[in-house]
Specification:
The chain is mainly beta. Helix content is about 10%, strand content about 40%.
Length: about 130
């Protein structure tokens, strides 16, 4: 799925959260998962964000045209050329109205490119209903 917001929760242990709509097809998959990954996309990966926000996509073939690498730890997909990624184990879930607040403990993460990296690309952001 495409998450429009990810939030740090704790440094010790390292926790992040994402909110998942209860009406989403992804909801069942995430609440049954032991592991999941977040790929932080770059500005030139907007098409990937749109792809994973499409409710009509086929779930079994959704990664067929998306360059990705299975994590050696859990096998969950890491999107190639993402700005960064974090791999999580399920830490907890909390009711959040029409969403479930999913909390993951970070077990593995990539580094962010340094500010002086000439190949570093800006992150994809989402604000007021639009990517930039």
């Amino acid at each position: 799925m495409t998450a429009t917001a990810v939030c740090a929760v704790s440094l010790d242990p390292p926790l992040v959260l994402v909110c998942v709509s209860k009406s989403s097809r992804f909801h069942r998959a995430i609440i049954e998962a032991d592991n999941w990954c977040l790929s932080l996309l770059t500005v030139d990966q907007e098409q990937i964000a749109w792809h994973f926000s499409n409710r009509g996509r086929d779930l079994l073939s959704q990664f067929d045209d998306i360059p990705h690498t299975p994590s050696p730890l859990s096998g969950t997909p890491l999107i190639d050329d993402a700005l960064a990624w974090v791999e999580c184990t399920m830490y907890g879930m909390h009711d959040g109205g029409d969403h479930t607040i999913v909390v993951g403990e970070i077990v593995r993460a990539s580094g962010l490119p340094s500010d002086d990296d000439p190949n570093a690309r800006p992150p994809l952001t989402y604000y007021r209903g639009a990517y930039s």
